[in-house]
Design brief:
The complex is a heterodimer of chains A (about 260) and B (about 300). With about 260 residues, chain A is an alpha/beta fold. Chain A contains six helices and 16 strands. In chain A, the strands form three sheets. Chain A has a seven-stranded antiparallel sheet with strand order 4-3-7-1-2-6-5. A seven-stranded mixed sheet of chain A has the order 11-10-9-8-12-13-16, with helices on both faces. A two-stranded antiparallel sheet of chain A has the order 14-15. In chain A, strand 12, helix 6 and strand 13 form a beta-alpha-beta unit. In chain A, helix 5 runs parallel beside helix 6. Chain B has one domain: Aldolase class I (TIM Barrel, Alpha-Beta Barrel), CATH 3.20.20.70. In chain B, helix 2 runs parallel beside helix 4, helix 5 crosses helix 6 and helix 6 runs parallel beside helix 7. Classes of the chains: A alpha/beta (about 260), B alpha/beta (about 300).
């Protein structure tokens, strides 16, 4: 699948919490082509001292309106500069890039774990599962209730949503991996175990989820993030160790079979 | 009056015929395939492929890159699948598309460089670039290119295995790059390319850790352009063989500066990561400069620096 490069207008840009922002782009044909779990590589305009693009997984894509939305967290100078972009500004993006989620055709019960802004790259996957008549449970994790910004869009999809906050200010008190493990055990006890799990979030969340999925025999995929330069598979900056040698997180991933990753 | 399309852009690097003076920095372009959504590789003066060793290397552990002011550090470590893979998969692909091909050759020993070239003599390609300048490998690379005698030994060994154009890629991490340039010229190199990356380090004060897993990496991008230009100019005055200039080139004007300093061709490297069409924009920018300046042949610019 070809990677496209397009100048895209910013349609809206909104702060969702202290560190989380949502940006809406008129992404032209990229919006029609993007698959769940794929990302775009965005060049922050007028940011000459910081030369590299920034990769962002797509949160929502609408092939009718050609709109894509990304949700990002401010972690450094690049994302801080991004917050200053205004409606009407244009940004240069490349996409869609990468190997997305592989929702098994025959899956009946799907578990999705999205921790922090890791809840963004799994939204279209949840939608795909829901549209295919699968029973989808989404576990959302955040440090605090204020940082838990994805509950409404997932509730609007009609999937089961379990929220977990590290500080106990909302929903399950504790880590989302513990909430997810409870859901896994409850599903098994009820005789309707999960038969696919997708995880996106900080490295420890994915490692822990991958570990209990392996123990319980649930096929699991994870979305890996590495410092990236070209984003098209040429520079070999973003490699990670897998059972099949070093692989590029940009085009061999970002989604990998959890059993393939050397944790 | 010269118009777009009428400027003669052809350059000859010791028998390597380039339809325009722009190639790509080894390691920034893989073997071209990844850029085929964006660029017709046959339109480049040449494709310079990623450094290739005899049996392939796994490269370094991560983290492998760090963004730094107007540049980036890398510590890839010449990860490559080996010369047989290049010959079976990549060179046929490039040849089918009509690309002019420079193969960058790496080795942990003098003998390995020579063996890689021996293997490649059966393949269809246009020139070799001998990488005696990578700062990110433990054996070979920069350790050869920082010593005139060792640099000479590697180039002599390669020279004895081929009659094809042989380019020595030099490191800036030396006291006097002209000594290395003269040594490789005397050892039989047909041309030199410079500069490879500048050694550097990035530290995260918050975690008190080096960002790169190996600590030291190689700096590239616009941050190193003045260093590269200075070294090209120094070498131009010191040697008689052609120079391929590189280091932070993003635009046609950047490239022209290198030509004026004495380079006969240029490489676009890190800019490929910023914009996958960067090399094409550089070619167009050179032509535009020539049109604006009434230059009918790009070779007129080589070493045309005025005082």
């Amino acid at each position: 699948m070809a990677i496209l490069q397009r100048e895209c207008e910013i349609l809206s840009h909104e702060q969702l919490s202290g560190t989380t922002w949502r940006i809406e782009l008129s992404a032209k044909d990229i919006a029609c082509l993007v698959q769940p779990g794929q990302f775009i590589h965005l060049r922050i305009p007028e940011f000459e001292e910081h030369i590299l693009r920034r990769p962002f997984s797509v949160f929502q894509a609408d092939s009718n309106t050609h709109v894509i939305r990304i949700v990002y967290r401010v972690v450094g100078e690049g994302t801080r500069r991004m917050t200053e972009l205004a409606c009407g500004d244009t940004v240069d993006i490349m996409g869609p890039i990468g190997n997305g989620w592989h929702l098994p055709n025959g899956a009946r019960r799907v578990l999705i774990i999205g921790a922090g802004v890791g809840a963004a790259p799994v939204y279209e996957l949840a939608k795909q599962g829901q549209n295919n008549g699968m029973d989808v449970t989404v576990v959302l994790g955040a440090q605090t209730h204020a940082e838990l910004v994805f509950e409404k869009p997932y509730l609007d999809l009609g999937v089961d949503v379990i929220c977990a906050t590290d500080d106990g200010s909302y929903g399950f008190a504790g880590f989302c991996t513990d909430a997810a493990l409870e859901a896994v055990d409850a599903a098994k006890t009820a005789g309707e175990p999960f038969d696919y799990c997708a995880v996106c979030g900080p490295y420890p969340v994915m490692r822990i989820a991958a570990s209990f999925c392996r123990e319980k025999g649930i096929p699991c995929e994870v979305s890996m993030e590495r410092r990236m330069a070209c984003g098209i598979g040429a520079c070999l900056s973003c490699v990670l160790d897998t059972t099949d040698g070093k692989k590029r997180s940009c085009v061999d991933g970002p989604v990998f079979d959890a059993n393939e990753v050397k944790w | 009056m010269v118009e777009m399309g009428q400027v003669s852009l052809h350059v000859d690097i010791a028998g390597l015929h380039m339809k325009n003076p722009v190639t790509v920095g080894s390691g920034t372009f893989a073997a071209g395939r990844e850029y085929s959504d964006f660029i017709d590789v046959s339109k480049l003066g040449a494709v310079t492929t990623k450094g290739v060793s005899l049996h392939g290397w796994p490269g370094n552990d991560g983290t492998r890159i760090a963004e730094t002011p107007s540049g980036m550090l890398n510590s890839i470590g010449l990860q490559n699948p080996g010369v047989d893979h290049l010959m079976e998969e990549d060179l046929p692909w490039l040849n089918e598309r009509g690309a002019t091909i420079i193969v960058n050759v790496a080795g942990h020993s003098v003998d390995e460089y020579a063996q890689v070239i021996e293997r490649l003599e059966n393949a269809s390609l246009d020139a070799y670039e001998v990488n005696i300048s990578c700062p990110n490998v433990d054996g070979g690379g920069m350790s050869f290119g920082a010593d005139p005698a060792l640099a000479s030994e590697v180039i002599s060994a390669c020279r004895s295995r081929t009659n094809r154009p042989l380019i020595a890629k030099l490191t800036p991490n030396v006291t006097d790059i002209t000594l290395i340039a003269k040594a490789v010229q005397d050892a039989g190199a047909d041309a030199v390319s410079l500069i490879n990356t500048v050694c550097g380090m990035a530290i995260d004060a918050n975690t008190r850790r080096s960002i790169l897993a190996r600590g030291i990496g190689g700096l590239s991008g616009p941050a190193i352009k003045p260093i590269a230009l200075g070294m090209v100019w120094q070498c131009y005055k010191a040697i008689d063989i052609p120079i391929i200039g590189m280091g932070g080139i993003r635009s046609g004007l950047d490239a022209v500066e290198f030509l004026l300093a004495g380079a006969r061709a240029v490489s676009v490297g890190t800019a490929n990561f910023i914009d996958p069409c960067a090399a094409m924009q550089v070619i167009e920018g050179i032509e535009r400069y020539c049109v604006d300046q009434g230059v009918s042949d790009v070779n007129e610019l080589v070493g045309a620096l005025e005082w």
